[in-house]
Amino acid sequence: MIRPAVLGFALLISLPAWYRLLFDQLELTQVLIRFLIAIPIAAILLAALRLVTSGYGITEETPATRVEAKPMDAE
Fold first, then answer.
1. Considering the entire predicted model, what is its pTM?
2. Residues 11 and 44: beta-carbon distance below 8 Å
3. Helices 15-22 and 4-13: crossing angle, nearest 10°?
4. How far is Cα 71 from Cα 67, in angstroms, rounded to an integer?
5. Cβ-Cβ contacts under 8 Å for 26 (sequence gap 6 or more)
6. Per-residue tens of pLDDT for the chain, all 75 residues
7. How far apart are CA 31 and CA 21, in angstroms?
8. Radius of gyration of the chain (CA)
9. Distance from the CA of 41 to the CA of which of 7, 31, 51, 56 falls in 20 to 30 A?
10. Contact 14, 30 (CB under 8 A)
11. pLDDT at 75
């Protein structure tokens, strides 16, 4: 099933075509084809964004490692 965010982003991508439809510069079929092309592009872009930002909400911290103090000039 297509996420509503994908459809909204595809509509945003194809908004110039919808604007040109209002002034009779494009036909409805051309606008719908551009919208259908924008859907998989929007899905890929939003999936990449979700992949990049997926680790930002994780709050689990890794335990600190112990470090032993050693003098610098001791040989």
1. 0.71
2. no
3. 60
4. 13
5. 17, 20
6. 889 999 999 999 999 999 999 999 999 999 999 999 999 999 999 999 999 998 777 667 777 788 888 888 755
7. 7
8. 25
9. 56
10. no
11. 57
